[in-house]
Each structure stands twice: as structure tokens, then as C-alpha cells.
Amino acid sequence: MHCIAIRHVAFEDLGVFGDVFREQGISFEYWDCDQPRDEQAWMKADLAIVLGGPIGVGDSERYPLVGQELALVQKRLEAHRPLLGICLGAQYMAHAMGARVYPGPRKEIGWGTVRLCQQGGLLAPIESAPVLHWHGDTFDLPEGATLLASSELTPHQAFSLESGQLALQFHVEADARKMEPWLVGHCCELAQAGIDPRQLRRDAQNLGEAAARAGREVCRLWLEESRRALAAQA
């Protein structure tokens, strides 16, 4: 199996998901912002992931790659191919399904939990485990989507569409061992939001191991579901 991951900033990568890919012999490549978006390769890939980033769905006029990536997400969904959207990627998926994407009441940044909306399923491993929240925008639940998780500040934290199509507003992939690039790379955003990076650093040290275990297991479950989806298309 092969995965293409669209990456917008270098430190917001596959994180602990990369551990699982290597464990299972799944090859993967990153498409960074300066690389062309090859629709044929995107559609051919067994797996596709759109990672987070500081741009938004409404930034297509200033950043043309937003429109290009929205089109790729739309095509992947319409073709019933496995797709995982994380943070910005989840917002892309919501927008592609006709849902509104808009600024939340305030930024949600820090290590915390989410409340699962159903028992079992792909997100069962994070039922009592910490995840990393890092977003300012949110979205309405798309028509036909299944709501999987919520938080007090963000009612729509995760949803699923067809088999293998999963949208996560939070960063279940984040590797707390590599937290420092996040803190430095987003230093202006943290200062503007009045958030102390020292607390995020302490939380990463205390909660990171549990978050990593849960994140890897979510990845394994998504891979299992994606394999079933691909087999059904064969």
C-alpha cells in the first residue's frame, strides 16, 4: 500500500502515524506546498491524508493551492477512496460536502480530551486518552456524515463519511516528542492567543506517551477499514 500525505508546514507531519506505516510496510510520501498536485497520482494512491496548517478554506484567493487541494479532496470523496483529513484536512472535507467552515468562538489550543458520540469504532482508543487541539476554525456537520466526537468548545470534532473516509479536527497524529517545532513555528499565534508555551511543553511531556499509544491505535483501525474499502472496490 502507498499513501500520499499533503503537508503544509514541515513539523505538522504524520507523527506517530508514520510509526504505524513503517511497522506495516506501507510506503508514504509528502506533498509539500511547493510541489505540484498530480491528480492522477492522488487518485491512484491507496491512501490519502491531508494534514493541518495555518491557512484556511477561505484563503483560496491568496493561496491558490487551497483551491487545488479542495478539488483533490472532492474527487477523492466522490470516488469513494480512503481519505483522512486532520485539522485543515477535516475542514476541507466538510467544505467539499457542502458544510459551512467558519471561525470558532476562540482558538482551541492545548492537550485535552474529546467526548465520543458513539461506543467503539475508529476513535475508541482515544475515549480516555489525551489529544492535541490546535485550531481556530470549525465547521458544521456535513449532511450524511456521522458525528464521532465533540468537545465543549467545538461540537463537531470528528466525523466519518464512507468507509475509510475520516475527518478529525484534533491532532491524534501529533508526536509529543517533537513538540518544540510546533511551539516555535506557531510562536506568534500562541502569543496572540495568550497561551504560554511552557505549559504546552509540560503537558506534552506528561501526556505524550498516552497520546501516542492512542494515536497509533486509531491509525491501525483506520488502515483496517481502508483495506476493507479498497477490497470492496477491487
How helix-rich are the residues, as a percent range?
25-40%
Q: Compute the number of helices.
A: 7
- Ranges where pLDDT stays below 50 over 5 or more residues in a row are none
Give the total of domains. Answer: 1
Rg, nearest Å = 16 Å
Mind describing the biggest β-sheet?
Answer: 8 strands, mixed
> Which architecture per CATH?
3-Layer(aba) Sandwich
* Strand segment tally: 10
What is the average per-residue confidence, as pLDDT, rounded to a whole number?
96
Assign the CATH superfamily. Answer: Class I glutamine amidotransferase (GATase) domain
Determine the strand fraction and express it as a percent band.
15-25%
- Which structural class do the helices and strands define? alpha/beta
List SSEs in N-to-C order.
EHEHEHEHEEEEEEHHH
Name of the top-level CATH class: Alpha Beta
Essential attributes:
alpha/beta; Rossmann fold; two-stranded antiparallel ribbon; 234 residues; 8-stranded mixed sheet; 10 strands
Question: What's the quick description here?
Answer:
Helix content is 38%, strand content 23%. The protein is built from seven helices and ten strands.
Structural write-up:
- The two termini are 14 Å apart.
- This protein has a single domain, classed as Rossmann fold.
- The chain has 234 residues and is an alpha/beta fold.
- The model has no long low-confidence stretch (mean pLDDT 96).
- The strands form two sheets. An eight-stranded mixed beta sheet has the order 2-1-3-4-10-9-8-6, sandwiched between helices.
- The radius of gyration is 16 Å and the shape is globular.
- The chain is 38% helix and 23% strand.
- It has seven helices and ten strands.
